[in-house]
Amino acid sequence: MGLADDGEESVEEQVTLSTGQTVTLPLSTDVTMMSVVFSAALDPVRALLPSCLSPVRVGRKRAAVTFLFVRYHSVDDGSLEPYDEFGVLIPATRPSSRATPILSRLPGGVGGYVHSLPVTTEPSRALGDEVWGYPKVVGDIELTESGQRRRIRVAIDGEQFITLEIDQPPEFDFSVSATTESYTVLDGTVIREPLSFDGELGMRLPSKRASYTLGDWGSLKTFDIGERALIRCYGRGTFVVHPGKPIHSE
């Protein structure tokens, strides 16, 4: 479900979820999003990746980790109710691929192997899990705003997962039309999901205007995540997720 052979253009396909909603692939959404990239210890990050992927390095023994908050205002013209999502992604590349590193293709590092992906509704969990193998779980995601400051608190099963605070750039710097890809495991097969974004972005390079507090849910504390943000980004626009393609067939 949702897979496409390499070399084929994505054609429209309707998929009915276990929760009853029917969506059309490629899936088009209207979003606002915030992301921040930190460094992390290379070895524990690399150990989480399938053997066909390599982490994007930001130092001799450091890899990159992206925290990503997305508010979906519209999903497939209303096929699903709006929802929020918080992702932990490991920017990664395929050694045999000629693709450039994800961090250079889409500002904010929005792409890579999806480590965890809490969402706020059951239909959105079913969508990601059943169509692409995204490791979605339903949790509580709270966004509060104070001036340019954004605070995102995420809890899963009543346990704190993460609290992220980030200064939103005061204005959008440029319009962008960009592509990247995410990686997941669906039915035991590593697949990649082509992603595209058309909209506006605001971006800032290294700063301390982002901070986080880790909870006990999950394995993030083993990553030895750095304190200084490498990139922070804010965007709004149209985000499209295409059918997945098995990596082994490429």
Descriptive overview:
With 250 residues, the chain is mainly beta. Helices cover 9% and strands 54% of the residues. The protein has helices at 42-48, 102-105, 122-132; strands spanning 13-16, 22-25, 27-41, 54-55, 57-59, 62-75, 83-90, 92-93, 112-119, 136-138, 140-146, 149-156, 159-167, 174-186, 189-204, 210-214, 231-241, 245-246. Strand 9, helix 3 (122-132) and strand 10 (136-138) form a beta-alpha-beta unit. The two termini are 18 Å apart.
Q: How would you summarize the topology of this molecule?
A:
Blueprint (H helix, E strand, L loop, with lengths): L12 E4 L5 E4 L1 E15 H7 L5 E2 L1 E3 L2 E14 L7 E8 L1 E2 L8 H4 L6 E8 L2 H11 L3 E3 L1 E7 L2 E8 L2 E9 L6 E13 L2 E16 L5 E5 L16 E11 L3 E2 L4
Parallel strand pairs: 9-10, 9-14
Antiparallel strand pairs: 1-2, 3-6, 3-17, 4-8, 5-6, 6-7, 7-9, 11-12, 12-13, 13-16, 14-15, 15-17, 15-18
